[in-house]
Structure to design on (304 residues):
């Protein structure tokens, strides 16, 4: 079997993992849920109720019910459950409740705001944690003896959720890249840089770049070649993420490319994606690095 075949995600699902890597992902995901559910953006949605009204997966009567309880009830419930997930307390019982409250709260968020984050990044990893042993380390459950960790801290049981989260990251970015190329009549408009130019031009006065430097990097009404370069680069970065499925060799490069792309978006006023990408990027790290931090483990155990 070639090295390439040994590195694909189907093989990696059955390889040694790290109890601490999965626990750290749980902590970071919990912190992100606390952050997004505590956002003042919900007050804005309450004051301006007719922003978008996007369709979601729920029938109309469920959406009407969620509209009524989202801010006064679902938001504080999700916030509290997010804190408990971070602490790893009664994790087995709170995860189903948190999943339900998060799905409902952010269906309300998505229905009023025409953008998929943080709903898109979080819902699947959160669902996965329901079927994982994410509280076997760095948790109150472990400290209080409420869970009994496996004797093997490098068991594949701790690996498969991480690899599926990496696969979810691939889906998010590759789908974003494909969506920029299809339908074909939008292909030229995107690659020509028109969308990027419009985004930088109209968001400039609300961008971090404006507050930092008080002037544009260049005249955003001209130099269309620069926007074309940015647009082509973003598509290439997003499509390149598919390599995560086949090998781990390019994970560090992919991480830097994604962070660079999100940093540019952050400066131009597109907020919220960078920290979400950082949370999912935990899945790109070799589990050996986590075990080196916490326990002495034979490096050969983790060789892929």
């Amino acid at each position: 079997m070639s090295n390439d075949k040994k590195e694909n995600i189907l093989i990696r699902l059955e390889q040694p993992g790290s109890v601490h890597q999965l626990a750290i992902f749980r902590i970071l995901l919990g912190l992100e849920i606390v952050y997004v559910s505590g956002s003042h953006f919900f007050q804005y949605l309450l004051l301006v109720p007719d922003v978008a009204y996007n369709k979601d997966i729920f029938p109309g009567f469920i959406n009407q019910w969620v509209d009524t309880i989202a801010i006064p009830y679902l938001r504080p419930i999700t916030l509290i459950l997010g804190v408990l997930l971070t602490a790893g307390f009664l994790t087995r019982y709170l995860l189903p409740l948190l999943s339900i409250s998060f799905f409902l709260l952010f269906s309300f968020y998505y229905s009023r705001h025409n953008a998929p984050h943080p709903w898109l990044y979080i819902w699947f990893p959160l669902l996965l944690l329901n079927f994982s042993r994410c509280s076997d380390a760095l948790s109150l459950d472990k400290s209080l003896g409420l869970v009994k960790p496996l004797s093997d801290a490098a068991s594949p049981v701790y690996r498969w959720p991480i690899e599926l989260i990496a696969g979810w990251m691939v889906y998010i970015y590759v789908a974003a890249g494909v969506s920029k190329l299809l339908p074909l009549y939008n292909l030229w408009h995107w690659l020509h840089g028109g969308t990027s130019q419009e985004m930088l031009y109209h968001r400039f006065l609300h961008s971090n770049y404006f507050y930092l430097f008080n002037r544009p990097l260049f005249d955003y009404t001209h130099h269309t070649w620069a926007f074309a370069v940015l647009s082509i680069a973003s598509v290439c970065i997003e499509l390149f993420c598919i390599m995560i499925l086949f090998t781990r060799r390019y994970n560090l490069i992919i991480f830097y490319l994604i962070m660079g792309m999100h940093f540019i978006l952050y400066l131009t006023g597109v907020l919220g994606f960078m920290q979400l990408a950082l949370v999912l990027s935990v899945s790109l790290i070799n589990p050996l690095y986590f075990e080196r931090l916490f326990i002495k483990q034979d490096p050969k155990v983790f060789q892929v």
Observations:
- The chain has two domains: 15-138+154-158, 162-296.
- The radius of gyration is 21 Å.
- Residues 60-87 form the longest helix (28 residues).
- Residues 162-296 form one domain.
